[in-house]
Amino acid sequence: MPPSKPSPTSSSTSSATSSAKSSAKPRAARRGAARPSAPLGSLTQAGSSSGGRCRACGSERVTTLAMSLTDGSPVELVSCRVCEHRSWLSEDGAVLDLATVLDRTRKPRRDA
After folding, report:
1. The domain containing residue 58 runs over which residues?
2. In a domain, 96, yes or no
3. What is the Cα–Cα distance from 15 to 11, expressed in whole angstroms?
4. 32 in any annotated domain
5. d(C-alpha 67, C-alpha 57), whole Å
């Protein structure tokens, strides 16, 4: 009588899979050191804002997103949850108009 084959749900298969998962590095560790970030806030918890205000209505109910544009320039988008006004700010806090932000997000053309 030939030896029986282990079933696909056998413990040897699951233990090999679990050991492979446990030895994998987290994504952040694989990418290298991340730059320091601002403290995270919450959209749903009162009192968790970072102190920003809407430039149009003065409300503290704003959502702030920090990002880098295609050309590498760091910017911050501030969107008011009350009046829906949006502001783009440069790293030094200067207001950027939308046309400037869009120009900085375009990829350079390669001429053939």
Report:
1. 49-107
2. yes
3. 6
4. no
5. 24
Burial string for 68-94 (b: 16+ CB within 10 Å, else e) reads: ebeeeeebbbbebeeeeeebbbeeeee
Structure tokens at 55: 């430039």
Under 8 Å between Cβ of 83 and 56: yes
Task: Confirm whether 7 is domain-assigned.
Answer: no
**Does 34 reside within a domain?**
no
pTM over 0.90: no
What are 16-66's pLDDT values in tens digits?
Answer: 444 445 455 555 444 444 555 555 555 555 555 566 899 999 999 999 999
Contact 91, 75 (CB under 8 A): yes
Domain count, the chain: 1
Q: Kindly report the number of other CB atoms within 10 A of residue 64's CB atom.
A: 16
Q: Which two tokens stand for residue 22?
A: 């446990």
Sheet with 62-68, strands from edge to edge, namely 62-68, 74-80, 86-90, 95-96
